[in-house]
Structures are given as C-alpha cells and as structure tokens.
C-alpha cells in the first residue's frame, strides 16, 4: 500500500518530469520502489534516458534494471518491438540469466502465445522451484485465458508454500468474488485482515462479501465491519456509511417476524444517515434529494 | 647515569634497518650491560621509560593501518567465498507458516470467533496440524547442523578464512617488529601477562606495562 507522503512525492515528481524539468531517473526509481503501474510515463521517460548514450553511461550498472523496467512498461503498452529490443540487449549482457528468461516468458505472454509461455515458465520452474514471481506469472496466464479454475488451483498450490504473501491472498479473493464463491472469498479476506488489520479496504471488501452472503448473522457481522471501516477512515468512507444503512434495514426486515426486542440500537443507522446527508450536502448537493428519498425508503421498509 | 644508559638502549632510531644483525648485537650488548647493573637499577624500575617518537611513527601507525586493511580484505574474501544457498522448500514453508501463525495471534481480535477457532485447529490439530511436532521427532538443532553437509562446509570455510590471515599477520609482525618495546599500557597489569605481552623482550625486569609490538 502506498502511503500518503509517497503518493504526493510521486505526483510531484510526475508533474516535474512531464513539464520538462529534470529528475526522470528519480521518478523511475520511485515508481519501481512503490511498484505502481504507470506504463506510458515509464516508457516515455525511460526511452528518453536509454536513447541518449551520455545519460546511459551516467547510470552505470543501474542501466540494466532500467532496461528491464522499460521492457515491462513497453509490453504493458503493447509496444512489443521496443520490448524485444530491450530484452535482446539484456540477453547479450546476461546470457544465462533467470531474470532475462522471465522477461522472455512475459514477452510471449504479451504476444498471446500462451502455450509457449507456459512451457517456458515450466522449464524455468524446474530449475528454481521456489521462485514466487514465476508461479504468479503462471497464474496470470491461466487468468488471462479466462481459465479461472486452473488459476485458482495454481494459486492455492502457491499459497500452500508461501502462505504469508498477502498480494496472492488478495488476488485469490478477487477471483473468488468474480466467480461468486463468496464463502471462500470471505476466508481470503479474513487472512488479509489478519495480516494487515489497519487497512480499511479489506474490512470494506469483507463486509461487502458478508452482506452478499446474506443471513442474519452474516449481516450483523457485516455491520460491524462497516463500522470498523468507518472507524479506520475517520468517518469519510461513503460506501461504508451506505453499508451500515443497508445492513440495518436488512436486519430489521429479517427479524421482523421475531418477537425479540431490537438488540442493535437504531442510533447507528440514524448517525450514518446524518453523516451521509452532510457529506452529500458538501460534495454533491444536486443528488441530495435522491439520497434523502432512498434513505427514507430504507427506513420504512 | 643509570637512567641515561637506559635511555640509550631503548631509543632505537631506525627500526627498519635493512641489516638486522647489528641491531641484534646492540641489543645483546645492552642485555649484558643491564645484567651488570641489574641490582643497581632495580630500585629505579618505577621510573618511566622514555619511548622514542620514532617507535610511534614507524610501528604503531603502520601496524594499525595494516590491521584495518586486513580486516577489509577478510570481508571481501569471505564475500567471494560465500556459496549461494539454494533455499529448501521445507524451510521456506516453515518460515511462512510461522509468519501466518504470528499474524493469527496478533490479529485474533479482528476476525469472528468461529473463523479464529477454525484456523487455530488448522494449526494445532493433534494429527495433521501444521505447527504440531510429534514428540520424538523434534530434532536437536546442533545435530542437524552437523549432519547437513553444506552447512558444515560453510563453517569450515569461514574458520579457515579467519585462521589463515591471523597466522600470516602474526609471522609478518614477528619478523619485522620483534625485539623492542612498542607502547605502554595505561593501566597496571600483573606479572602473569608478562609472557603474553612482552614476547620479544628478553629483559625480565621491565615493567609489565610496557608491551612489545607482538601483542598489538
């Protein structure tokens, strides 16, 4: 997760470089460190450095990492010739390298030659069975082909060995949600919350999944997680506020037939509704009428 | 007069004389002369010996510089000789399991009790829990270290790379810098250290605070 200071720094550098100021190399280093995806900018500025032999020699041994970064960005932008040239240069410098082999595999993937790419990765995996990036590329092939069950299988096998990799858990959760396997997705989100309990995104996604699963217990739990998401974001998360209103109305509907008294106080819902109205008044006053009518229907139903 | 004599014997102006023999002869003379006057200046043992600044320039500083350089050299050699270890899948998995279990403990309050219990059982189940080690199998870490051939090789290599430079330095220092007092230790020492610290000096009456260069 990118922190706020890093984000502001990144934006500042981006503006600086886009408007003709120097600092392209720092920008590229920051992008690489934060692992953000900005292929067009990386490609443009990286090529401007690489095509200038003076700047190239000024980089020293870092020029090879720059080649790698630019080749991946080129493949992202579908400029496959540029990517091929970069990989050729890297191949000449490092003939039997694992990393260059990986790049070649990614190039095959970008061209759409799935079978060859899979073969390349399997042969590389035989030599280094513990390389996480190769495993993930294989999963990416299966996902790009639309073959979700295979992707899930590979990812599960990867997670059996590398079970502390939270990015993989997140990917698995998203695949499960897209396949509507909500119980498994809930498990993955639980893992994510365990490893990073202060990230509100995971709480929100978990609450969404729980709400979709339905059932009184799940919706109660979902309400709690929406509340924790609001807590973690300082009350600014509109989706979580809406979530609370929806959960409260759903619980009221589901427990209508029972004679139990209201366990949950109605304060939470009214608080959330009030916060929503304030937010809309500030940011989108045109839609305020829609909001109030929707909230009213929720309360009465 | 006695102190003057002492001054002369201890001020070696040029330790790096190419011809070692007259150097040693000088020492032998001083030894015999001190023997004669031994009973006389046992009383004056307490007074300080004046050490020539040439000793400091030519001995202490080069020796320190050489020590530092050898340390640096040892670091680079060890970096070269270090064999890249192939990560064992079992060890990697164990590491990851530990991280995940630690996360479970730390974040237990953030997930529902049912899912926490399910995960706890997954880890600690008697038969097939991930963290459960049956009683007889927990291996002694040291026995494992010796049985693993790669690790034993690594340890031997490390030991060798430490021993060889030490012996070389020792011999070199011994060859060049033997036979005179190099420095004075600021705090008083007992007689037992004499053989350790005053290796090249054959006078048995010199205060133990004065050390030869070998101890440096």
Task: Please give a structural write-up.
The complex is a heterodimer of chains A (301) and B (216). Chain A contains 17 helices and no strands. By secondary structure, chain A is mainly α. Chain A folds into 3 domains: 1-95; 105-162, Serine Threonine Protein Phosphatase 5, Tetratricopeptide repeat; 199-255 and 266-301. In chain A, helix 2 (24-34) crosses helix 3 and helix 13 runs parallel beside helix 15 (238-254). The radius of gyration of chain A is 25 Å and the shape is globular. The model of chain A has no long low-confidence stretch (mean pLDDT 86). With 216 residues, chain B is mainly alpha-helical. Among the domains of chain B are: 51-82 and 160-181; 87-138, no CATH class. The longest helix of chain B is centred in the N-terminal third of the chain and has 29 residues, at 53-81. The interface between A and B is medium-sized, with 17 and 18 residues.
Which features would summarize this protein structure in a list?
heterodimer, A: about 300 residues, mainly alpha, Serine Threonine Protein Phosphatase 5, Tetratricopeptide repeat, 17 helices, about 80% helix, B: about 220 residues, 9 helices, about 60% helix, elongated
Summarize the structure.
Chain A is built from 17 helices and no strands. Chain A has helices at residues 4-18, 24-34, 39-50, 53-59, 63-76, 80-93, 98-111, 114-127, 132-144, 148-161, 166-178, 182-195, 200-213, 216-233, 238-254, 267-283, 288-300.
